[in-house]
DNA sequence: GTCTATAGCCGGATAGAC
DNA sequence: GTCTATCCGGCTATAGAC
C-alpha cells in the first residue's frame, strides 16, 4: 500500500485523469509539425510518461510504484507504456542519466573558471538553484541508486563521479593557492555536496525564506566550511 | 527483482542460513535464564527479526523487501514472523522509533552543556560517531519516511524534530553570545545535519581515513560553517 | 514457536484486435 | 498507438496442524 506524503505544494489525487506537469508549466506542448491534434501521440506521450514516472518515483519510490500507476497518471493503459520504454528499469535509468547529463552540462556553461573562491561561491549557488528547480529528479538520483541493475548502476556512478570532480577540483585549487583551509579534498567535497543537496529536504516555495536568501546563506556556509570568505582576507 | 549493491564490508549471500549480526558482534546472545538452549525462541528470534529487517530495508528499501526474505534471513518460515510483529509496517515503524529514541537519549547523556562552541564541537563528533556506528538504522530513518503510514509518519516526525532542536538550540545560543555567525538558525541547523549525516554515504571502515580523522575534519567544518573555531579567537 | 498451505490480490510484461 | 485480455509469479497475511 502507498501513502501520499506531503511534498511540495500540490495535493492532486491520482484517481481519474489529470493534466501532466508538462501542460501545467504554462507552455503548450505542441512540439512542431509532426504533432497531431487528436490527443496523445508519440511526440507528446513519451515525455509525459517520463514526467509521470519521475513524479511517482520521487514520491513513493521506484519499488513502490507500478507500471499501472504510471499509465493511469498519463491516461493510457498499462500495455501502451511499453511503446515508450523497454521496461520499468530502463525508465528509471533514463531518468537518472538525463538528470546527471543535465546538471553536468549546466555547470559547464556557468563555470566562471577563475578564482577558486569565486568558483566555490558560484558552484554552491548553482547547485542550490539547479536542485531546487528539479526536486523530483534530484530525489530520484540520490535515493534510487540501489534500485538500478548492476550495469546501470555502474554507468550512473561514472556520471556521478564526474560531477563530484567539480567541487573537488575547486577545493584543490583553493587549497594549493592557500585561499582555503582544506584538510582532505574528497572529504570536504563530499561534505559540501551533502550540505548543499540537503536543501531539497526542507525548502518549499512560498515558505519563510525565498530562494535568493537560501542560496546566499548556503554559499556563505560553504565558504566558511573551508575557512574562506568572499571579498575578505583569509582568516588564517 | 532486487540487486545487491555494495554497501559496507560484507558480501554475504542471502541464500541459505547464516548467523545474524547479533552473533557476529562477538558476544553470545544467551539473554538470561529464560533463554532455551534449543535454537530460536522468543527472546532471541524477536531481535533477530528486527536485525534482519534493518539490514534488508537499508540495502534494498522497504518496498523492495518481502516478508519472505526477512524470514529467510532469520531462518524461519514467513508465517512465523507474525509472532514478532503485527505486520510489515509496524516492523518499519518500530525500527525507526527505536533508532530515534536511541540517538536522542544518547545525546542527552553526552551533552557537555556548556560553552556553545564546545557543544557544537561535541554535537558534531557525536553525530558522526553515532551515525557511523548505525549505518543501517540511519539509512532507514532518512530514506523510508515516505514508506510510513500517515499516523506513523506523524509520530516519527515528532521525534525527528526533537532531535533537530538540539543543533538549533546550540546555534541560537552561539549566535546570541556572538560566538557564531548564524544568519538563520533553522537553515543553519538543517545544513549542519545534512553535512554530518552525509558521512554515511561514503565512509567505509578500513578505507583511506579512520573514524577519528573523519570526526575531527567534520567538526572543524561544522565550526567553520558558522564562523567559529575551537580554541581560537572568533574571526569577526 | 514453527511449519505448511492457501486466500486474495497485485505485480511486470506480452499478444493480438482494432 | 492504444486497448483488452492474459500469463505467470510474488506479495501480505491468516489458518490450522504439530
From TrEMBL, chains A, B:
Residues 66-85 bind DNA. Keywords: DNA-binding, Transcription, Transcription regulation. InterPro entries: Homeodomain-like_sf (IPR009057), HTH-type_TetR-like_transc_reg (IPR050109), HTH_TetR (IPR001647), KstR2_TetR_C (IPR041490), Tet_transcr_reg_TetR-rel_C_sf (IPR036271). It holds the Pfam family TetR_C_24. The keyword Cytoplasm does not apply. The keyword Acyltransferase does not apply. It comes from the Bacteria. Residues 43-103 form the HTH tetR-type domain. This is TetR family transcriptional regulator. It comes from Jannaschia pagri.
